[in-house]
Amino acid sequence: MDDQRDQMVASTSDQRTVNNVMRHAYRVLSDGEKAQMQRIKDDGLALWNFFDSIGSSRELSLAKTKIEEAVMWAVKHVTA
Known about the structure:
The protein is mainly α.
């Protein structure tokens, strides 16, 4: 696990291409865009964690998957 952690790059880092197989080039994000991306991910995680804390069901599993999808699309908007 430590080997994987050593290879991780923060999503707001300008070095985020080093461990991405599919996307070979990124544009440099402004500080404002980096803040937007961080907030999207933080808020998505907070909602995901809340849903995780209230129980377990197929419905909650679907809701958590949709949160992940929403975060992905919102981040794509910021980084496109």
